[in-house]
Amino acid sequence: MAALILIGALVIGLIVYNGRGAQADRIAENMQKVDGVSLSLADNVITLSGDNADGAKEAGLYEDFSCHYCGELAVNTDDQMLAKIQAGELTVNLHPLIFLDGTGDQYNAGHSTRALAAVLALADKGEIEAYWNLRKALMEQQQNLYATADNDTLADLAHDFGASKGAVEAIRNGEYTDRAKAMGEANAKDLVDKTGDLSSPRVLVDGKDVPSDPLANWIDDLFA
Predict the structure, then answer these.
(1) CB-CB contact of 169 with 152 (8 Å)
(2) Which single residue of 75, 113, 116, 202 could bond 109 by disulfide (Cβ 3.0 to 4.6 Å)?
(3) Considering its fold, how many domains does the chain have in total?
């Protein structure tokens, strides 16, 4: 009887592992090249800029990986945003948020924190292509990943996007969880200090919300 239980547990574990791997493989098929883009991480901000960014317009993007509208905005604007960055016309300061995991005493580390910790591991190690593609997957495949993306899933995805062994292990072990929490909370305070309101997605230029309506037009409006 014990042997049958052990065999059953092994079979279930294999099914879960293979299912997670297949999901990662499907998502990784859409990997996007990010040639000509530089990444820097400082003061709780992840900055993406082109190699020739002198005179580029600058915008701050506030987003939460659990935010449905953030996912929609990414689907509608990320390709255009990346093209502008690669052309040296736009620098984007990404301000990740985690407020959808709760704030203050109501905070409970969940998908927002876990996802941010994963991309933060890549950003901290300067792995721009893996960073961009993991962020892209987390936004575009948000509905599929929200309930299933544990640290192992995120680590597998990062691996498939070409992340280094050190970054993959850092994600798998949750090494950036505390830093992600601190970063998300700092960006929430920054957003409230600048605008008086905490919500996402938000795009700020010169410390003020862009007037675009819908927000998906923000890049066109910025360059109009």
Answers:
(1) no
(2) 113
(3) 2
3-state secondary structure 77-106: HHHHHHHHHHCCCEEEEEEEECHHHCCHHH
Burial of 49 (0-12, 13-18, 19+ CB in 10 A): buried
- What is the pLDDT averaged over residues 19-40? 76
Q: Which of 69, 46, 84, 82 is nearest to 222 (CA)?
A: 84
Residues 6+ apart with CB under 8 A from 125: 164, 166, 167
**Sheet with 208-209: strands ordered across:** 37-42, 45-50, 90-97, 57-64, 202-205, 208-209
Are residues 153 and 67 located together in one domain of the fold? yes
Tell whether 102 and 10 lie within a shared domain.
no
Domain encompassing residue 136 = 36-223
* Length of the chain as a residue count: 224
182-220 confidence digits (pLDDT tens): 999 999 999 999 999 999 999 999 999 999 999 999 999
Q: Please indicate, yes or no, whether residues 7 and 102 belong to a single structural domain of this protein.
A: no
Average pLDDT for 117-123: 98
Kindly state whether residues 154 and 204 are assigned to the same domain: yes
DSSP conformational letter for 47: E
Q: How many CB atoms lie within 10 A of CB 106?
A: 8
Query: Over the Cα atoms of the chain, what is R_g?
Result: 18
Query: With contact defined as beta carbons under 8 Å apart, do 200 and 67 qualify?
Result: yes
Are the C-beta atoms of 59 and 204 separated by less than 8 Å? Answer: yes
More reliable by pLDDT, 30 or 132 = 132
Strand ranges, E, within 19-163: 37-42, 45-50, 57-64, 90-97
